[in-house]
């Protein structure tokens, strides 16, 4: 076994193992193997020590056996040849001495172990027939039997006891020493054996049933972890095997027999699957071959009559169980080398114990070791399954705890992150607001500087010079007008430039009234200009200043009598855009080739200003002037720019 | 030349303005137009002047040394409902004008208006033509939109009840806000040009909050107060 395990673990790293790696494997494998050797010794000692004691004072072992027509003296325990017929069973006959003084508690006959079934008669009257108790006949269970001998049957002195041993192959028949004596003396030994070989397996099977249900539920809820499902299947099979009453010949129900016989190899194959999956490896494709013997036994059991399935089970099923146990031992050994964790160690030790028990049973079957034919594989296997199931449940509960603490951590982390995010968001918002405020402030400053500031300075200068009142008045009016413009443009107009132009019309009309100039206001479409949701106060200020400049030019330099403002909307297929035209009937001014007024420097500066303002909000300014008047055409953009296009 | 009302009496104006040069300027412009102008620099002086009798027109500044012009307007509306009231404002900003309108003023006069414009405005006011500026009309219609949007928090600026305005009146306000003349508005809306000033007067009256209880009622109606 150790050789195979070593091979398996050496094979696992497919690349050529380096020396340190080999040393590591050895350093891990050797202690494990030593531990397993220790466990083997402990198990063997345990099996030896735990052999139940029988009351040897009442042993009846000298029988005469009549078999196949001839009689010979035998000493129990005795093996008879395997046979496949219930007719003409071997008959064991002996005498025992009854003393009526011991009859206070009544006498019993106690058979600790037999295989497969017995019929006991005292003085020719049958007192026990184990064939009626299906479970008592199972060769894999070491069921004892006890029967009270009716007092009327017993004679003072010598009595005759006859035991018919029914055997159904392929195993040999076996009859352990028979005990006849006071019931009080025999019953404790019987009870001990019943506890060990009947009650305990039932208890284990009940546990197995419960674990099977729990594991099935786990698997149903967590389909991606087939390990639970595999183990549940193995356990269910074991439960069925344990609780289904085995058919006793001649009333053979071959189907049930097939299930019962096939259960052991299939179960053991499932356990190997479990091991592979449990340690997180992929189930190899050829691994399915492991199920072949079990299925074969099953199929043969279904179609073939006894005793063929049983023979097949003996030659196919039991070696499969052994093979599976060896494979499982290899799997766990590899896992121990790789993982070095408690789970692989525990399962490895459990597998070793079961393997020892299996070897012990094999030796018993083959009569190499005489131990009164007590089979321990089933018992140890059940114990192992229960241990694994309990371990899995423990693992599951621990995983739940981890999930809980993880969830708790997660909640805390999320809360922390949320708070950090909130704080940084608030900071960011604060920063953005501060930036917006600073931007707005800068723009307002620039606007005030452009208009109000200059005009106030001009007022101061004029006052200091003691200049004529009219100039001061003009400058002060311009300052007020500009202040109103800035305040007005701050108002939320919802992207409707017409609302800003409405106010401007009022101011312009008031401004023109003293000059006796008429302001014609023509809006081509009833709704005015298209809506611009992106329109910002600084756009409005630029546009209104352009219009102011145009009107001021018309008044100051062109001596116009009539100014017309036309508001129009066009659409060249790429969305509507507005055009505002300011036309006057004044004298106009000469334009140089580059479109700038050749005349007074102030006018030239004014025109340049208008153009740069238009450019800043994405508009296009056209100016035409001749002796019949001046026309300023402001073509608004389809979309106003977000940032100053010509900042500064 | 003396401006006279329908009854033929000289039109009396009470001018409340604490800045002396501004006061002179307005007084000159109005007196030149033929009005009988009494001036007051504080609320107390204004109340004293009212003891002599109700003026036809009250022109008042809002920020006065001993109180707010709004108090005076409210008192005036209660004691002399026939008096026409206007606010004098340096900038014509919504904050001051709207708060005056809600207590009963019907328009405003810019402090730097040209003398002829000052006289014309007062004359129109007495004739029943309440002047309204584009920016004030804009403020009111923007507020009607805000009320329609049912926003949770009240918009910035003075409280204003626009619930009683009819769609026609709101249309007229839109026209004024966009700079259309009364004639253009009338033709767009299919009205007679002469009826527009009457509508505007109605608008002012509807925006006025007469009493405290009415103010509460209106607030509840508009959902500003939850009972």
Quick recap of the structure?
Chain A has 648 residues and is α+β, with helices and mostly antiparallel strands.
Beta-strand content of chain B: 5-15%
User: Could you tell me the radius of gyration of chain B in angstroms?
Assistant: 18 Å
* Oligomer category: heterodimer
Query: Tell me, what is the CATH class of the largest domain in chain B?
Result: Alpha Beta
Which strand order spans the largest sheet of chain B, edge to edge or round the barrel? 2-1-3-6-7
| CA-based shape of chain B | globular
Low-pLDDT parts of chain B are none
Quote the average pLDDT of chain A: 81
Could you say which structural class the secondary elements and strand pairing of chain B correspond to? Answer: alpha/beta
- Number of β-strand runs of chain B: 7
Largest sheet of chain A: 6 strands, antiparallel
**N-to-C span of chain B:** 58 Å
Strand content of chain A: 15-25%
Main sheet: strand order of chain A: 3-2-5-11-8-9
Instruction: Please indicate the count of domains of chain A.
Output: 3
Share of helix of chain A, binned = 40-55%
For the record, the CATH architecture of the largest domain in chain B stands as 3-Layer(aba) Sandwich
Number of helices of chain A: 13
Q: Which geometry of chain A do the CA atoms define?
A: rod-shaped
Give a description of the structure.
The complex is a heterodimer of chains A (648) and B (227). In chain A, strands 3-2-5-11-8-9 form a six-stranded antiparallel sheet, with no helix packed on it. A five-stranded mixed sheet of chain A has the order 14-15-16-18-17, with helices on one face. Chain A has a four-stranded antiparallel sheet with strand order 1-13-6-10, with helices on one face. Chain A is built from 13 helices and 18 strands. The two termini of chain A are 90 Å apart. Chain A has helices spanning 2-11, 19-49, 183-221, 226-243, 254-278, 292-303, 308-339, 342-365, 377-464, 469-490, 497-512, 537-556, 601-616; strands spanning 59-60, 62-67, 70-75, 78-80, 91-98, 107-111, 114-115, 117-122, 125-129, 145-149, 157-166, 173-175, 178-182, 518-523, 562-571, 576-584, 620-626, 629-635. By secondary structure, chain A is an alpha+beta fold. Chain B is α/β, with parallel strands linked by helices. Chain B folds into two domains: 12-126, Response regulator (Rossmann fold, 3-Layer(aba) Sandwich); 134-221, Arc Repressor Mutant, subunit A (Orthogonal Bundle), CATH 1.10.10. Chain B has ten helices and seven strands. In chain B, strand 6 (84-89), helix 4 and strand 7 (108-110) form a beta-alpha-beta unit. In chain B, helix 1 packs across helix 5, helix 6 (134-148) crosses helix 7 and helix 7 (167-177) packs across helix 8.
